[in-house]
Every structure is written in C-alpha cells, then in structure tokens.
Specification:
single chain; alpha/beta; Rossmann fold; four-stranded antiparallel beta sheet; binds guanosine-5'-monophosphate; binds magnesium ion
Length: 179
C-alpha cells in the first residue's frame, strides 16, 4: 500500500509504522497480557486521549475476561509551568485489590508514568503494570519498568493511530514521523 506524506498545519510527516505492523504488535502484547492475567480479570485504565485507538484494538485481541475504564491526566502545560505531577481525572472504578493495566499511547521521558504510578499504587491495587503502544528508550529519564511495550521507536515526533499534533492526526490508521 502507498503512503504519501501527510501535512498537518506547518509540518510534514512521512510513513513510519504501517497499520499492519502496528496491529501485529498489538496482537502480541494482547497475547502476553492474556497469558499473564489468566484468572485475574484485569482492569485496563486507558489514558485519554492518545490511547483510545490502541486500547480498542488491544481489548479486541484479549482472550480472557477483562474490563476497561478511561481516565485523563491534568494538562501537560500545567505540569511544566508548576512542576506539579499530573493529577488523575475521572477515575470512577474502585481499584483496590484489582489487577490494573495502564494503557498509554507513548512513553517518552517517562515523567507522565512516573507521576501516575504512585497515585494508583496509593489506592491499593493488587498490581499495576503499563501497556504502551510506543516507547522511546533513548528519551526515558526514569527507571521505570514498562512491562508491555508494543513498539520501540527512535526519538522522533510521531502522529497517527490516536497520537496527535495540535489535536490533529489522531484518525490516521498508520503512524507517521515528522520530516
Ligand atoms: P512523557 O511524560 O513520557 O515524556 O510523555 C508522555 C506524553 O507526551 C504522551 O502521552 C504524549 O502525549 C506526548 N508525546 C511524547 N512523544 C510524543 C510523540 O512523538 N508524538 C505525540 N503525538 N505525542 C508525544
Ligand atoms: Mg499519553
Ligand atoms: Mg498530545
């Protein structure tokens, strides 16, 4: 299939990860999680907005009973300007005693996940692990164990399959990187 470059506002993007490669990686992660959580009925916590498409495909590939709920984190701008940790918005489920799998779009520096995990741990879950569509190992600044990364990428800015540039590009089936 041909993937011409995509223009979003002032930037041009070229094809990086085609849909079939993404979906293959998602299947592998889903199989690993299904194996590891047999009999545990995990609760996926999908971090909006970026992880919605990954969360959807991941759930469809799960072969064990599981639940999903959606959360948001307070804005990045706020965190940068105040140095505060992003706060969880919209967590309705009781996670005490549950096996939680956080579903993220991308782990870059790791600041977001490093701030989120202690907040979840404080609520007394049975376990917490992270499934992320993408990870940028060269950017990671925290000693985090990300148990379920679907794809490792170089330190490039990417869009598509849920990831945005200024709110745009989330609808792309494939992942593109900035040129
Ligand atoms: P971290 O806190 O790990 O540095 O970054 C996590 C957040 O930064 C992601 O959830 C995402 O919103 C944003 N981000 C980091 N790298 C990229 C990228 O390459 N593309 C897009 N669209 N967002 C990114
Ligand atoms: Mg995210
Ligand atoms: Mg974003």
């Amino acid at each position: 299939m041909h993937h011409p470059p995509v223009t979003i506002q002032d930037k041009q993007f070229s094809i990086y990860l085609p849909e079939r490669k993404i979906l293959h990686s998602v299947e592998i992660v889903a199989a690993r999680i299904s194996h590891d959580y047999r009999g545990k009925q995990p609760l996926f916590l999908s971090v909006l907005n970026g992880s919605f498409m990954f969360a959807s495909d991941l759930m469809k590939e799960m072969s064990i009973p599981c639940e999903i709920s959606f959360i948001r984190l307070s804005s990045y701008e706020e965190m940068q300007s105040t140095g505060k940790v992003k706060e969880i918005i919209g967590l309705k489920e009781e996670i005490k005693g549950r096996h939680v799998v956080v579903v993220e779009d991308i782990v870059d520096t790791g600041h977001t996940i490093a701030g989120l995990l202690p907040q979840l741990q404080a609520k007394g879950p049975a376990s917490v692990e992270v499934a992320t569509l993408l990870i940028k190992p060269d950017s990671l600044q925290h000693n985090l164990s990300i148990k379920y990364p679907a794809l490792s990428i170089a330190n490039d800015f990417v869009v598509g399959y849920g990831l945005d540039y200024n709110g745009l590009g989330r609808n792309l089936r494939d992942i593109y990187k900035v040129m």
